[in-house]
Amino acid sequence: MRVLFVCLGNICRSPAAEGVFRALTKSTEVDSAGTGGWHVGDPPYEPMQHAARARGYALGDLRARQFVVADFHQFDLIVAMDSNNLADIERLRPAGSETPVRLFTEFAPESGAKAVPDPYYTRDFEGALDLIEICARALTTSLQMQAS
Ligand code: 4NP
User: CATH number of the domain at 2-147, out of 3.40.50.2300, 3.40.50.300, 1.25.40.80, 3.40.50.1970?
Assistant: First the structure.
């Protein structure tokens, strides 16, 4: 199973999702990307790294990259942080690709959240990480149930 997390910049939400999800599962290949290219090559945003580090997630070795059409072939599941990310990804879907693209929050409907709000703008890094942890646990459970 190969899972790709996607947000806008690939410096806040999707690298955090990658780090949290990686800590939960060994059997899944995981990566992250941004629909935008402004931060390509950058490490995760320092305030997000700091908040993640306090919870035991080391994000410092990650580097931002932009989502590419080939990702539809490289991954079994693409997970978007909000509906704009999802629409931007779907716009690039190559003919014949059936790779599912899902919202992260869909896996945790009990959270009531329709998206992972962007802490680059909200400045709520703790709230973003709380929701990312909830969704990552729910995604792990969903994949385990699918596999058994
Ligand atoms: P992210 O947050 O999508 O969670 O990585 C963002 C970070 C930077 C920008 C946009 C979103 N930016 O436009 O620079």
Answer: 3.40.50.2300
